[in-house]
Design a protein that fits this description.
189 residues; alpha+beta; OB fold (Dihydrolipoamide Acetyltransferase, E2P); 2 domains; five-stranded mixed β-sheet
């Protein structure tokens, strides 16, 4: 709850605040309720699922490409696969490959890495994306995206549609899943 007493009075509006503790408590509750309503207001733009990789890197994928979120998934590692394959999960009897986008984007692992899986479908295939935390939904004006900035070790900027708000990388799931670089087609002799 917001403490109205913490606010420094700067004018006649503050002078008109009630002096009684109960009235101030009620006003603080109303202020908190208004803040929650504002946070829940629908956002304009293309709906995205917002998630975190590493300690604080924020990414988003189009909601239209997401099939489901599997919280705290039991990812089974697969031996002899590239680093970007986190493993597989059992999704209602279907074995689903889980990619680790942190490996693609050179994101340092967090101390408390999560195992949420965002199931996405594009380019004729369905895969999971291992994320540290699903943060919620976000409306993104695709016309206002800033271009991606090249980084050391990140060679796949074709998978990035742009940067939203200076802190969220919007991933082009279609380009990512259509890229032959993510296909593993090795055969044993």
């Amino acid at each position: 709850m917001t403490d109205i007493d913490e606010v420094t009075p700067q004018g006649s509006a503050f002078e008109r605040l009630p002096a009684e503790a109960e009235a101030r408590r009620i006003l603080a509750e109303r202020l908190d309720a208004l803040a929650r309503v504002e946070d829940e207001a629908p956002q304009e733009g293309e709906p995205m699922i917002l998630f975190r990789l590493g300690r604080e890197e924020r990414y988003a994928v189009p909601l239209v490409r997401c099939e489901e979120i599997v919280p705290d998934a039991a990812i089974t590692p697969v031996p002899c696969t590239p680093r970007f394959i986190a493993g597989v999960i059992n999704r209602r009897g279907e074995v689903l490959t889980v990619l680790d986008p942190a490996a693609f984007f050179q994101v340092e692992a967090a101390a408390m890495a999560g195992n949420d899986v965002l199931v996405v479908r594009a380019a004729g295939q369905t895969v999971g994306l291992r994320v540290d935390e699903v943060l919620g939904r976000l409306g993104v004006d695709m016309r206002a995206l800033a271009p991606a900035i090249p980084s050391v070790g990140v060679s796949n900027l074709a998978w990035v549609r742009g940067i939203h708000g200076g802190n969220t990388t919007v991933i082009d799931v279609d380009a990512m899943l259509a890229d032959p670089a993510i296909l593993v087609d090795e055969r044993t002799a």
